[in-house]
Design goal:
Elements lengths: L11 E8 L2 E7 L6 E2 L6 E2 L2 E14 L2 E13 L9 E3 L14 H14 L2 H9 L6 H10 L10 E10 L3 E8 L5 E5 L4 H9 L6 E4 L3 H10 L5 E3 L1 H18 L1 H4 L9 H19 L4 H8 L3 H9 L21 H10 L5 H10 L6 H9 L12 H8 L8 H11 L3 H16 L6 H13 L4 H12 L1 H9 L5 H17 L5 H10 L1
Parallel strand pairs: 2-6, 8-11, 11-12
Antiparallel strand pairs: 1-2, 3-4, 5-6, 6-7, 8-9, 9-10
Helix pairs in contact: 1-2, 1-3, 4-5, 6-14, 6-16, 6-18, 9-10, 16-17
Length: 505
């Protein structure tokens, strides 16, 4: 018995019964053994009485186990002790105020940490244990949180409690990625109060949030702040996408023609209306009132020197016809009068599984005769932000054709690749960053200029991010896991439970 159940080695097994779908084991503690008083620490073997405790244990053979443990109540022989009597505890079998063995409690704690309430209760049924969802949450909140020392490099990031309404702050060790604390909100005052009581931090990794920057400056003015490199690259990608949109009139000419001709004419007419009023000295707000347009729309038209820059690339998605584009193009060049029915028959023999309507729409959009397949702005931006050695040959050829459409796109490609080299931490990256900003300012790339202005506003943190090895990637990974925890609880749990699960996971 003790070989299968080692926690019974210190007790006497009196009997084992099976029935009613469970295993019942009757044990008793040995008499004449001294026990340490939990109040004063003095040993005693003066027995007061005995009583039976019913303790649940891990299942055996698919059956739940209940142990009837006969334990002693002892007198404390120290007259100065506050406890007159106390009950002995069996190591590995009983715990004060607990009706489960430590082994079973460890299993329940693991399930509660991973799944919490109802989902954890359903899993325990397969482990032959029955607990309500409320008991699962009670067990979860009783698990003590691990003690984490103040990290040398602290990572700070926010996550949504309710997207667009309420946010909280996660603090981690940027080197070991251990969770340190979860703050109830993302206000600068809250983070400042937490930082002031914890000296020893030598670096703080954060994103571009001004509130976190101000909090670190107020609490730890001498500690260097490190901008996260992922956020720098992400912000550059957003600026690149805006530049790609602005020059769609250049790089989209070789693709299929746009079908939104009425929209293009309207856009051109509105641009002339806005610039005519601006040339007369009318302000932006007055332009919006006279033309009955939104102020942001007027600003967008005012920033563009030519209406051609407002042209949008056609938004065509890849279809089942795309693999047979070369065949269709060759057949229409050989026989311009070939019917769509004949083309449909031919590509079906080649493996086409789409409909006739899809083929008709593909041809009517002009995608067969175009010099290259349609490329969306996001696809173009993805090609620009991908390392050249990671591109396929056809993608590399497509990128060369797109970037060669105008000088701005060629210059943009060079700036992206130079900035990508800066994301590898090096001692001289601060100087190289300054040179990169100067070169960008020389080209007509207004959206990239806005990105460089943001870098200069947070120059010290950006320079530290490009020179120091610290980053905030661990906080982003924990935020991804937090989303899973939130979805498991369906938004019905409070902040206390969410914080507990984040710190325990």
């Amino acid at each position: 018995m003790t070989a299968l159940l080692p926690h019974l080695a210190s007790v006497l097994v009196e009997g084992v019964e099976t029935g009613y779908g469970l295993v019942r084991i009757t044990v008793r503690t040995a008499a004449g053994v001294s026990v340490v008083c939990p109040g004063c620490g003095q040993e005693s073997m003066w027995e007061h009485s005995r009583y039976v405790r019913h303790v649940a244990d891990e299942a055996i053979g698919g059956r739940p186990v209940v142990m009837d443990v006969s334990v002693r109540r002892l007198y404390c022989e120290n007259p100065d002790c506050s406890k007159t009597t106390f009950v002995e505890q069996v190591p590995g079998l009983t715990v004060r105020y607990q009706r489960r063995t430590p082994a079973l409690q460890k299993v329940i704690a693991a399930v509660a940490t991973a799944l919490a309430g109802r989902a954890g209760a359903r899993l325990l049924l397969h482990l032959h244990q029955t607990l309500s969802w409320a008991s699962m949450l009670t067990c979860l909140l009783r698990i003590p949180l691990p003690a984490v020392a103040v990290p040398t490099a602290l990572g700070v990031d926010d996550f949504a409690l309710r997207r667009g309404h309420r946010y909280a702050t996660i603090l981690i060790d940027a080197e070991t990625r251990k969770r340190v604390e979860v703050l109830r909100d993302r206000r600068a005052e809250t983070l400042t109060a937490w930082l002031r009581g914890r000296p020893g931090i030598e670096a703080v990794c954060r994103d571009g949030a001004a509130g976190y920057a101000q909090a670190v400056t107020d609490a730890l003015p001498e500690v260097p702040q490190v901008a996260d490199r992922w956020h720098l690259w992400h912000n550059l990608g957003e600026a690149v996408l805006k530049e790609v949109h602005a020059h769609a009139g250049c790089w989209a000419k070789c693709g299929p023609p746009s079908q939104a001709r009425v929209r293009e004419e309207t856009t051109r007419e509105r641009w002339h209306q806005v610039h005519t009023l601006l040339d007369q000295g009318v302000g932006l707000l007055e332009c919006a009132r006279r033309l009955q347009m939104a102020l942001n729309t007027v600003k967008r038209y005012a920033r563009v020197p030519e209406p051609a820059q407002l042209k949008k690339a056609p938004q065509y998605r890849p279809t089942l016809v795309e693999p047979y584009r070369d065949h269709l193009r060759r057949r229409r060049e050989e026989d311009p009068a070939v019917s769509v029915r004949q083309l449909l028959k031919e590509i079906k023999d080649l493996g086409y599984r789409g409909s006739s309507n899809l083929l008709h729409r593909y041809i009517n959009q002009g995608r067969v005769e175009s010099d290259r397949p349609a490329v969306s702005p996001r696809r173009f931006k993805s090609l620009l932000c991908t390392a050249p050695d990671q591109l396929k040959d056809k993608d590399r050829e497509l990128l060369t054709a797109l970037t060669g459409s105008c000088l701005e796109m060629t210059a943009l490609t060079g700036h992206i690749r130079t900035f990508a080299d800066l994301l590898k931490p090096a001692a001289d990256n601060g100087r190289r960053l300054h040179e990169w900003i100067s070169r960008v300012r020389e080209d007509d790339l207004p959206h990239l200029h806005a990105f460089t202005r943001g870098l200069e506003r947070d120059h010290d943190a950006v320079a530290n991010g490009l020179t120091l090895p610290f980053h905030n990637g661990g906080a982003e990974g924990i935020n991804t896991k937090t989303k899973l925890i939130k979805r498991q609880m369906y938004g019905r749990a409070g902040f206390r439970l969410l914080r507990h699960r984040i710190l325990l996971n």
